[in-house]
Amino acid sequence: MHLALITSTFAIIFLAELPDKTMISSIIMGSKLAPLRVFLGASVAFLFQVIIAVAVGGLISRIPRKPLELAIGLGFLIGAALLIRDMRTDEIDKEETLVREMAQEHFWPQVLVAFGVIFLAEFGDITQIATANLAAKTADPVSVGIGSLLGLLSVTGLGIYFGSTVLSKVPLKPVQLLSTLIMAGLGAFSILSVLL
Fold first, then answer.
1. pTM of the prediction?
2. What are the distances in angstroms from CA 176 to CA 33, 45, 55, 180?
């Protein structure tokens, strides 16, 4: 386990997830459901997503170096493209409707709503792709997994407890742009390291 890798993974995932639909989902669910139940459901969903991502990254890391670096570079570039796409889509209404329809006052239904919304929203999402890419590139799935999970949980915690305050003080477009630039830079670096 490497603290520097955990920290850098945390920073990448945190920045990529901050302006994402999961943050918006967390704000909506946190305002409609019990915050601790939302956090519990989201935490379990993120744990499954990170395990899937690092497992895929571990399999990817067995590919020979040059094709692997190209695939990782393309993965990061696809991630940057997904961030650009997400900057233009508005999923707030869909998420709010889903939460309203499924939410009840009981413990487990609220946890399951949070789990379902987050698990489905994150499946194949930029942060899952980035986690798989980082696990493949570094060959340290434990450090990447820990950093990724901490980043995801931090954003969700912000969304649930401080979302409206954060969103009123931090404009999302610059954060989305920074995340896109980081992903594109990582992608270009991986591809250029093979070509040069």
1. 0.67
2. 27, 23, 27, 6
Residue carrying the six token digits 């409206």:
164
Sole residue written with tokens 């940057």:
80
> What DSSP designation does 187 have?
H
The set of residues, in sequence order, having a beta carbon less than 8 Å from that of 118 and lying 6+ positions away, is 22, 25, 26, 41, 42, 45, 46, 156
Residue 123 host element (H or E)? none
pLDDT tens-place string over residues 20-52: 667 767 776 776 677 888 899 999 999 999 999
d(CA 118, CA 160): 13
DSSP sequence for 41-105: HHHHHHHHHHHHHHHHHHHHTTS-HHHHHHHHHHHHHHHHHHHHHHHH---HHHHHHHHHHH--S
Residue 140 in tokens: 């340290």
How do residues 54-105 score in pLDDT, each as one tens digit? 988 877 667 776 776 777 677 667 767 766 766 665 554 454 455 555 544 5
CA distances from 158 to 18, 23, 87, 98, 191 (A): 9, 8, 20, 21, 34
- Let me know if 101 is exposed, middle or buried by CB neighbors in 10 A (0-12, 13-18, 19+): exposed
